Amino acid sequence: MQPIRTKRKYGYIVFAITLLIAIDYVYRYFAFEPYNQSPLDIETPEGNAQPYHPSVVYIPGGWNGYAYWMAETPYPLGPDGDWNGLPPYRARWENPCIHASHDGIHWETPGDLVNPIDDLNETEIENRDFFSDTHLVMNGDTLECWYRISRTQRDETYILRKYSADGIHWSERETVIDLQDPAVVREGPGGMIVSPAIQKIGGRYCMWYVNDIGESRSICRSFSDDGRNWQKKEYCRLSDTAVVPWHIDVQRIDSIYYMVIYDFRNLTLWSSRDGLFFEKRRLLLAPSPKLGSFYAGGLYRSALLRDDKECKLYFSAFDKKTAVGLMRGNCPDSLKIYSVSGNKVSFFRFPVTYLRQKKQAIVRLFE
């Protein structure tokens, strides 16, 4: 009799443990649901579909077959979210790439374009140079792609530009701003330009940017007639001086300048009448608190636009991979995260995410 009772006892224990795990599984899945969205599906040339740092323009009526055009620089994480990224070094893949869309949601490589539109040569790779910070500007019938190159060994940074009449065939790389030029430092934009947000306003280029990579970060503005010769920088003022800007975007909507700031954690929305003094409007998005969400690891630079139906915000995100997500709303103040493909984590595909969350909880318990 004793072995039978012992067997039943262990059976009850196993059943109880299984029931507790099942209850915990269901609880965690439904707690995860508000953060269970999917990002854009975008192919990138390194083969890992890890886009990053988007800039998007909407062209009413379309341009060369597409209404939406995107530039981005892949910044791929390595296997299992390894921060070292893909060899030979992560930033080697941070090259400007172009994508196009009919609806702003489903993206493809236009025509016979081969991404990236600019790549490092062997010497630049040996020196561990890298591109970064793409931004698209529609200049009449020409699409311009602005971006940076950092010369690591010489500690130099330049602002580059390419242009295209069809989005497929691009001009040669040209240097438009030499940030080492004393005249540029003294009489122009200054010695550093991070995350430039460039608009064509009244026939002139207007550029907002973060002017330092150190601790004293400010947002500045400068104007140019030709994109090469820039006026002396003006300092923007923020209503909340505690924010530390890192990557920004600026768009003019209904005569109001809207700025989105990434501050090393959150995306916040700001507005201005004159393009110099920006008032904080709202928190747009914070990293997901739930491991397994595509933006649980963090956020980065975003791109705001308004098309003929709504406002869209394309934002960088990462968890185990980098990605570009989407927020939609009738106006910038009403933007909400949108699940692009509907390919979210289902109840029966949740075990991997569940185990990651449990592992995280155990690690935190012993910290």
The total count of strands amounts to 21
Oligomer: single chain
Return the average pLDDT rounded to an integer.
93
Q: How many separate helices? A: 4
* Shape field: elongated
Which strands sit side by side, in order, in the main sheet?
13-17-16-15-14
Helix content: 10-25%
- Give the topology string: H per helix, E per strand: HEEEEHEEEEHEEEEEEEEEEEEEH
Main beta-sheet strand count, sense and barrel state: 5 strands, mixed
What structural category characterises the helix and strand content? alpha+beta
Report the sheet-strand fraction: 35-45%
How far is it from the N-terminal to the C-terminal residue, by CA?
47 Å
Spans of at least 5 consecutive residues with low confidence? none
Over all CA atoms, what is the radius of gyration?
A: 23 Å
Helix and strand topology:
Layout: H1 2-32, E1 55-63, E2 66-72, E3 97-101, E4 107-108, H2 122-126, E5 130-139, E6 142-151, E7 156-164, E8 174-178, H3 182-187, E9 194-201, E10 204-210, E11 219-224, E12 234-235, E13 237-238, E14 247-253, E15 256-262, E16 267-272, E17 277-285, E18 298-306, E19 311-318, E20 322-329, E21 336-338, H4 351-365
Parallel strand pairs: 13-17
Antiparallel strand pairs: 1-2, 2-3, 3-4, 5-6, 6-7, 7-8, 9-10, 10-11, 11-12, 14-15, 15-16, 16-17, 18-19, 19-20, 20-21
